[in-house]
Amino acid sequence: MGIERLAAAALLVLLAGCASAPATPDLRAYLERREMCDHFRGEFPDPPDPQRMREVNEQIAVHCPGSDAQLAQLRQRYRDDRAVMKQLDALEPHIETGRP
């Protein structure tokens, strides 16, 4: 193995150690669901295509309901965990229809 490859491998190991993994399965599941929710929230076609809009709205109905309340609960539960709070603070707190 060349020195460049060895250095690259060492850098990858170092960076992987710095990555913050979700602390619990409920947090991991929420972050995955929220990622899908946010993805589909940004998928509205321009110009509008009725079929695609139906598909997007169906996916939003699957992935987004309860997101605001669950985010608030997770923020309360992990308020003392800086790494988790950094992930949660990056999310919009009110994405569901009719919320401030």
What is the SS-derived class? mainly alpha
The residue fraction in helices comes out at 55-70%
Tally of DSSP helical segments: 5
Unreliable sequence segments: 1-19
What's the overall geometry? elongated
H and E order = HHHHH
How is the biggest beta sheet arranged?
none
Q: Let me know the number of strands.
A: 0
Mean pLDDT: 81
Q: Using only CA atoms, what is the Rg?
A: 18 Å
Strand content: under 5%
Report the span from N to C terminus: 56 Å
Structural domain tally: 1
Outline of the structure:
The protein is an all-alpha fold and 100 residues long. 66% of the residues lie in helices and 0% in strands.
Note the main attributes of this structure.
100 residues, mainly alpha, disordered N terminus
Write the layout of secondary structure elements.
Blueprint: H1 3-18, H2 25-41, H3 50-63, H4 67-77, H5 82-89
Helix pairs in contact: 2-3
Q: Can you walk through the features of this model?
A:
With 100 residues, the chain is mainly α. The chain has one domain. The protein is 66% helix and 0% strand. It has 5 helices and no strands. The chain is elongated and about 45 Å long.
